[in-house]
User: Fold Adenylate kinase from Streptomyces solincola.
Amino acid sequence: MRIVLVGPPGAGKGTQAAFLAQNLSIPHISTGDLFRANISQGTELGKQAKAYMDAGNLVPDEVTVGMAKDRMEQADAENGFLLDGFPRNVAQAEALDAILEQKSLKLDAVLDLEVPEDEVVKRIAGRRICRSNGAHVYHVVYNQPETEGVCDVCGGELYQREDDSEETVRKRLEVYHTETEPIIDYYKAQGLVATISALAKVDEVTERAMRALQGRGDQAA
Assistant:
């Protein structure tokens, strides 16, 4: 299957992408991984991306599209893939369609993880990270430490990242509504969108997504 996963920040895309990719035996291709791999390997696209990023500028669509195209052409993606974070706007969606059309391929589904805006703010703004070990993550509502402000594992101080402040989260949501949300209508016109409520436990959301994929591709049937 060839799937695009979309949804606002805090919808749990990364978590769902990993589970769905495993269940469907297809690679999970995320924009973050693409950038890290190309930059660390010193590819031409990676060098271009790093130059823009070092200058504090957005990486142009053609560079991101080029990275995605290269990754989708690798052997493990021959029978499908799950895209997470790409395409992020309509121009990238059109470029993806063109890439697939050249190979006489098409997307099977676009999964839209739906979460109310207030819930997104609560999920992200409530996160607390261990200052000693950033891998230890808590939440003021959903995953509280035994002692407020203290990591259960190492006793490190818990803090809120600047990117997780309510003001920053709402700005990220504005960008999502302006740039990324329009691709949902773009794909709805192609009959590809399945909207999934992400207001549930992780495994329940995965089950909803798998049910939505039934009949859309050989592997999900």
